[in-house]
Each structure stands twice: as structure tokens, then as C-alpha cells.
Predict the 3D structure of the following.
Amino acid sequence: MAPLTIRALAFAQRGPYDFTVRSGECLGLEGASGAGKTLLLRAIADLDPHEGSVLLGDLDCREISGPAWRTKVGLLPAESHWWHDRVGEHFRELDPDDLERLRLLGFDRSVLSWQVSRLSTGEKQRLALVRLLQNQPEALLLDEPTGNLHSSNVAQVEQVLQQYRLGRAVPLLWVSHDPEQLGRVAARVMHMHRDGSLEMLQPGRA
Amino acid sequence: MGVKPLSAVDLALAAGLVLVLGLCSYRLRLGLEKRLAVSAFRTTVQLLLIGQVLNILFARGDFLFVAGVSLLMLLVAGREVSARQNRRIRGVQGWLLGTGAMFVSSFTVAYIALAVIIGNEPWYAPRYAIPLLGMLLGNTMNGIALSMDRMTETIWQQRQVIEQRLLLGQSGAEATAEIRRQALRSGMIPIINAMAVAGLVSLPGMMTGQILGGSSPMDAVKYQILIMFLIAAGTGFGVMVAIWQLRRNLFDDRERLRLDQLQRR
């Protein structure tokens, strides 16, 4: 898969941001709440208006439609949302990869018939990951993917994400408040200061 | 057969009933007597005024004059639609949206009714054109205002769900399909219900007026059926145009949800 390149990205009096998430690399992003980490992810997914460009390999996000871009560059929001009554209505036909991910995250096929209203926050978050990966995104933006999880489930989510990244050499941008987690999963870590500026903490440690 | 004219004394007698109602309101301490008086006064003055306007209109009857009055009615209705929105699209766009939808549907339907169905010579004869357009505008105005308000309000409340759907690669149209369907329904259901009970629960005002005015009941009924169909078509198509345009205004060319386009009243 191709690297994700952020070039002179500016929005809402923030930026310009310039950095690259290499193919198959997990780049960590930490910083105080309210610094604008989520806004940065939203701009990269082209969910908010922005200037500058975001490229997946040679493909500029403006060359394809917004929905097509967001299918390729998948953003997992900190809080997932569901609109149908049952879990299964949010999913396409499950393939073996999907079933394997469900199993790793502690579910089986029967989860599809569950009522969304009965899911816990943590269950929703884990299922949202499987739902997003069904799009087979070529780059992943993760906003606190384990933020609402019980510690016993954190390792499983990390494992699913690392498998996906390594299996397809997908670039991953991982936002977390937990320095230990970023130490485990990320090759490099960026820090976002309160003014929104970025600083690479461990440059080159690949 | 003409209508038996009412004298000022006749109306004063009817006003006496309202006066008694006001006294009751005072004795029962409903606190409605002032509002009752103001409303009764307003209805008298406004209707007398419009009577004068229609007198002039019917006497002149040239196209430009009819067109001018129609335009004025449209502008007032457009203002009313904007005023009834809790959250509306910013600036001229927002006003154009509701007014444009009303213009497209009401004026088209009114033209078809006048020129093709009723077939007057000339088709814009004000005795037919103005009341017909008035009734169409009044009803499409209600439908459009209701459905637009429903749609903006629901999208505002469900913005996070909509953005989640956009994030999964859906377009704005896909992400709001159910919301738009509900908004369309809420705009169209009042007229559908009105058609279902017409004649059973209520005698429509226009028909009553026509019968009082001396028309045969069957003639009045046929006109009422025509009006019902016209209002249903005008409201339905107007609501569709409004919801379609509203969706185009709330999502940009990158299919992002642009709630910054909304302003609260």
C-alpha cells in the first residue's frame, strides 16, 4: 500500500501540517485534549474543509469523490454511532477475515442479531473497528481506538490493528492519550502542542 | 343567482356574539378578551382591505397587474417560510430555497389549472387566478415550512450519526435518506389527511363560500375536488423541491455535512 502524505494541510486557523505516514508504518499522535488531534484526523479524512493536500501515494484526495476518499482513508472516531436497530444491518456479508476479527475481539457470528441499544460502549467500539475494516481502507486514522475499552480488550484491538497494518502494509495514524500504548504500537510518535503545532518525539526510530 | 348582501348591521350582530364571548372570558378570567378583541379587529380590517384590493384587481385585470400581485403574495409566503424555521440556511440562499420551491410548484400547478383545466379567456383572469394561487401558496407554504424545519432539526440532532455514515463512505444522500423521507412525509401528510376527511368531518371553506354565494352544490363540490387535487400536487412537488435543495445546501461538493450553513433563529 501507498504512504499517506500530508502536505501544507491547513484548516480553521491551524497548520500548515507536513508529515508522512509511511507504508506499513504506525505513527503515533499524542497531546493535550483540545489541542486539535481529532480535527486533524477529520481534515485528513476530508470531513472538514481544508487547504493544502492529502495524498495516498500519488492520489490527491481532490481527484476522487469525498465518499470514495473516505472509503480508502478510514477514520475510526472515538465514539462510534449506529443507526439501524440491529448490529448486522450495519455490516456487509462477512468474509473469513471479518469473522476472524470478530473472533479475536470476543464475538461470534451471533452478534449480528444483537440489538444495538443493548451494546455497551466498549462493544460498540470494538464492533465499529470490524465495520470500518470491511471497507478495506488503504490508510487508517484511529482516534483513541481503545479509549472506552476494558484493559482486557485493549490488547485484542491492538492485535487486530497490527495484523491489518502488517498484512497490507497500510499506513496508520494512531491518536492516544496513553504513552505506553504508543510505545507498544507506534514506530514514531508526534506530539501536538496546545497551539496545534506538531513535534516529532522520536525521529527516525523505525 | 347572486349572494344576499350583508349590511353593516348584520355584521354588527355577529360581532355582538364575539362581544358576549369576550364578556364570558372576562368573567371566567381566561385573560383572552384583549387578544380576542385585537384578532376580531384585525380580521375585519385585513379582510376589508383585501376586498378593496380584489375590487381594483378585478376591474383592471391586465396581466402585469395580476403578475405583480402574485409576486407580492409569493414574497410574503417566502418570508413566512423563513420565519417558521428554527434553524435555516444562512443568507439569501435560505430565503431563495423555500421561495423557489413554492414558486416552482404553486405557479406551475396554478398555470396548468387556469390555462388547461379551467380554460378561461384570458387564462390569468384575476377572479380565478388570485384566489386559486392564494389557496395553493397558503398550503404549499405550510407543507414546505413543516418539512424543511423537520429536516434541518433532525439533521442537527443526528449530526454525529450522519458524519459516522459519511466516514464509512456513504454520500450525503445515502446518509440522510431516511431523514429526508420523514421530512417529505411530514410535509405531505396534512393535505393527504385533509383529502381523506373532506366532506365527512368538515365542509371545506371554499366550497361553503361558493354555496353561500349561490352556486349549486355540485358545481361547488367539483371545484373543491379540483382544488384539493391541485393543493396535493402543489404541496407534494413543492416539498420535494425544497427537501432536494436543502440537502444540496447542507452537503458540499465533497459530501461533507456543512452545519455551518445553518443559523439559529
In short: The interface with chain A takes residues 158, 160-161, 163-171, 178, 252-256 of chain B (CB under 8 Å). Residues 105 and 234 of chain B are 5 Å apart (CA to CA). Strands of chain B lie at 87-89, 262-264.
